[in-house]
Amino acid sequence: MPTGSRAVELGPQDVEIERLKNGLIYARSPHALGALPATITSLVQHWAKERPDGVFLARRGPDGGWRALTYAQALARIERIAAALLERDLSPARPAAILSGNSIEHLLLAFACMHIGVPVAPISTAYSLISSDFGKLRSILDLLTPGLIFADDGAAYGRAIRTVAPDGAEIVTLAGGGELGATAFAALAADAPEAVAAAHAKVDHETIAKLLFTSGSTGMPKGVINTQRMLCANIVQIAAAMPTLREPQTLVDWLPWNHTFGGNHNVHIALYGGGSLYIDDGRPVPGAFDQTVRNLREIAPTVYFNVPKGFELLAHRLEQDAQLRATFFSRVRFMMYAGASLPQHVWDALERLAIETVGEKIRIVTGLGATETAPSAMFVTRGEVRAGMIGNPVPGCELKLVPNVGKLEMRVRGPNVTPGYWRQPEATVAAFDEEGYYRIGDAIRFVDPDDPQRGFMFDGRVSEDFKLATGTWVGVGNLRGALIAAFAPLVRDAVIAGHDRDDIAAILLLDPDGCRAKFPDVADGAPATLAAHPGLRAALAERLAAFAAASTGSSTRVARAVVLDEAPSIDHGEVTDKGSINQRATLAHRAHLVAELYGERPSDRVIGIK
Questions:
Q1: Does a structural domain hold residue 144?
Q2: How many other C-beta atoms lie within 10 A of the C-beta of residue 119?
Q3: pLDDT tens digits along 35-94
Q4: CATH number for the domain including 540?
Q5: Is 21 contained in some domain?
Q6: Which of 223, 404, 476, 561 could form a disulfide with 464 if both were Cys (CB 3.0 to 4.6 A apart)?
Q7: Could you give phi then psi for residue 382, rounded to 5 degrees?
Q8: pTM of the predicted model over 0.85
Q9: Whole-number Å distance between alpha carbons of 422 and 144
């Protein structure tokens, strides 16, 4: 593991376990939670005094160079924007909504809102730019009743705004807002330091800071209330797990701020230690990842966060690019993934490349959390870490493990847990049990039942598991992970079917990059083109047969599969803007494919085992 200047200071990871006769298990950290910041934006004030010239935020400008904002500059801009917002009578009843993606202006506006107690709601760009009917955006704005809506590009977001923006909401843009009658972002500036200071003084830990919207897996998105207490407690909890983060860190990060991982976890890590966040306009998708590579060749991160697909693409590019390897591994102290399980072959490749480049492994950290937990509830940092491990609860966070059809359903309580959903009291009541624990919906298990100090493993989503017609339970999360690993690099994701059926089937989502690497003759990466390639179909059939042969029984044996030959639909909730696949929504929308898989005479598209 890293040593010397690359050493990572790690916090304690021990756990107290309480077992009751009825099978309930309680798990908590024996360590007290440290003092919390007064507010998240008080950290900007602190670093503007302590490190006024330190770079807080940077993004490439139109000329390709980095446009940087120091802590002193950021605080001055935040206070001037906050003064302008005070003139606009914004409030929890009339919050601010942000439609566009990560940018310096996005963060300045968000922090200005939080500084004076105005909730801010960053919304997935996909709901405006990809959606064809704006159904989710309409639902969110109807729920919010915003007094101000910001979009950086009025032309790009214009159709969505004209279609669903409520009457009376002020539209603010950086450019292209003429036809919308928009206010220029630069006009959000006023001099009223006494009024801003007075408004900030009224903000406390109970004040709503953000409203973050879920992906809407079982309907329209729900607005998760994020209080100042949640945000302040969670960054202290994260730093308790990894005290290294109390020092200034350099992040190069693309993760969207409408998600808790990017907008809370990563932004606040940069802020907590007085570090720097370089906004990465790339994404882990074909055509956009080149921008990420360009950024990582120039800016050496000290910590690096991504989703599993991003790490898979990065590992591939690190193999090919010596300059990228040298820069990336020169300062990075640990890496962390979230959003899904990291395939073991990607994990192994990252460790091998680090050893080849700098002579030692770079620690990979992981854990478990949710939008409702701000997000971090658990971390694994110590010992030998492998894919699927999630560690033990952070200080101040308590777990309740409830026996549920052979698994342990996890529930969470602590200062980092949401008080509920915005303007949805029924959903709030349903989300908590009689002791006030949030029902996170995940199952976990001990790494070693005889040694709880080794922590926990992820054991799937309780809501996704189902029974076969034989009464055998199928653990979807573990099976899905194993299936993706067996089909790597051809398959990006899989949807597992088989509820009340005799056997299991799968809908496969292909990985265009992986498929074209194996089959260079493929004309393009379109799902329909890939699905029709005979060599690829033969390879999938071979992998499916091998997977079935290695299965331990009907709960792990996939009998047939079909390739999804079109992109999953964001309007139907099949995919999030981070690319995560929603199992339940896909099965509902693709009922015809499920019927095809189980037909008496399967079509030619169905790949089966003999």
A1: no
A2: 26
A3: 999 999 999 999 999 999 999 999 999 999 999 999 999 999 999 999 999 999 999 999
A4: 3.30.300.30
A5: no
A6: 476
A7: -105, 160
A8: yes
A9: 8
